């Protein structure tokens, strides 16, 4: 399960709250946007540029522009994703 809610998309910054269910495995992703992911609830494994890291509540992951990345959810989690520039594909 993936549930996204755009919190703001003003100027060149976008903040999206993402709820992911335990056991979710994201597809490999790559985009021109810089991304910062803050773990608000739960835990997950981020793989960024081939480097794996376990994140828990309060941890932050930076994803540079055009770097291949993916997420695997260990425990139901809520992530705040910040993108710049705005991801037009996520705007309703």
Show the helix and strand layout.
Layout: E1 2-10, E2 13-20, E3 34-48, E4 51-56, E5 60-63, E6 69-84
Labels describing this entry:
single chain; 63% strand; mainly beta; Jelly Rolls; 92 residues
Task: Tell me what you see in this structure.
- Residues 17-83 form the Cupin type-2 domain.
- This is Cupin domain-containing protein.
- The chain has 92 residues and is an all-beta fold.
- The protein has one domain (2-90): Jelly Rolls (Sandwich), CATH 2.60.120.
- Helices cover 0% and strands 63% of the residues.
- It has strands spanning 2-10, 13-20, 34-48, 51-56, 60-63, 69-84.
- Strands 1, 2, 3, 4, 5 and 6 form a six-stranded antiparallel sheet that branches.
- A hairpin with a 2-residue loop joins strand 3 and strand 4 (51-56).
- The radius of gyration is 12 Å and the shape is globular.
- The chain starts with a strand and ends in an 8-residue tail after the last strand.
Q: SSE string, helix = H, strand = E?
A: EEEEEE
What is the typical, i.e. mean, pLDDT? 96
Let me know the number of strands. 6
Biggest β-sheet, characterized?
Answer: 6 strands, antiparallel
The tally of helices reads 0
Alpha carbon gap, first and last residue: 19 Å
Radius of gyration computed on alpha carbons: 12 Å
Number of domains: 1
Give the helix/strand class: mainly beta
CATH topology: Jelly Rolls
Second-tier CATH architecture: Sandwich
Give the low-confidence spans: none
CATH class: Mainly Beta
Give the percentage of residues in beta strands: over 45%
CATH superfamily: Jelly Rolls
What is the molecular shape? globular
Helix content: under 10%
